[in-house]
Amino acid sequence: MLISAYTSPGDVPAQDWDALTEGSTVYSASGWLWVRDEERPEGARAAYLVARDEDGRPAAGLETYTFPRPPHPLYTPETLLEGVVGPERLRHMAQRPMAVGSGWSEFRGQIPVRQGLPAKERSLAVDALTGQALDGARAAGASVLSYYYLPREDALEAMRAHADADPVLLFHDVETSLPVGQWDGFEDYVAWLPAGRRPRARKEARIFRESSRTIREVALPDVVETIAPLNSALMRKHGHDYGVDRATAVYGRQGRFLGVSSTLLLAEEDDRAVGFALRYRHGDMLYARVAGFDYSAPNLADYFNLVFYHPITQGVDRPTRAIHLGLGTFGAKLARGAQPTPLYSVFVGVDRPLAASAGAVRDRNDQHIAAFSDENGGHVVGGLDTSDWLR
Questions:
Q1: DSSP symbols for 273-332
Q2: Which domains, from first to last, does the chain contain?
Q3: pLDDT at residue 316 is higher than 70
Q4: What's the whole-model pTM score?
């Protein structure tokens, strides 16, 4: 495999990258490369790698980054590895730059591979990409190369590619998705829910429907100034220092690079915006990115109508298989039909192996999986089976 390495999203042939990400999530699409490039912290460096077959066609890709310090608290390797790697190594790790493969934002990583690529060529492509990522991490003086928030297949691929370095795989978090494509309208969806949950869903949909509020579908670039105060209000409600100017900058940026794939549901009352849900369309999936609300207006189950009930009703005439709902707020999402998918992170020692205890890794993963199951398993429609979650 030949590797093409680019240092700017503008240098990456968009048609090649998008050919790789057709079967991946929207967060690896070429537009997100630009978003992450503008959000990259000072001192961070990026490389966009494309493995090509002998005919020059893109076979697989990888985003790689190096940071002088973690770009976000949830991307701090020594925090995640505490208890499975020795304290001296953790201290060393914290003092060195860090390297990340497979993306570093939106809490979703992946190794995009061309759909239909034979297994042997896939392995060769991933080996070449991860080998170059390791070389880049070594050149930056990093102590660990991290692959964050990977689905099962990509996590196992990274483990196999780095097998010589004794990598560590940790269960990291859970993403959820709502399988709207399986229901023929709202009543079909309600009938699918357990009997005890049906009255609440009907009530939440009814109080919104009988109000004077309406839902209008628009593109993100047309409403950035409208939604920024609503998103800022939501973030501040949850304890984040997130002003209107920052929200305007964040969604203005996304509108510039991702506006064509954006689809935003805007709830209005008396010509005033009272809530929104921003989604991105990618293939047959919708990706719910963020919401926001005017908390001076009465709560009429706006969140559940914008994120769940209205899209379920829309889905009858649209080829949407599922709505990706991301991480967190599991009780509310799972109780209304969202299904969980585990995500993993893989850590590779750069200057020397991490020397993690296999038993400690398994115990840690077992404990975290059991904790998620105990807290949230009862909410999952159809029950939760974690027997095939990686440990």
A1: EEEEEEEEEETTEEEEEEEEE-TTS---SHHHIIIIIHHHHHGGGS---EEEEESS-HHH
A2: 2-174+343-379 (3.40.630.30), 180-320 (3.40.630.30)
A3: no
A4: 0.94
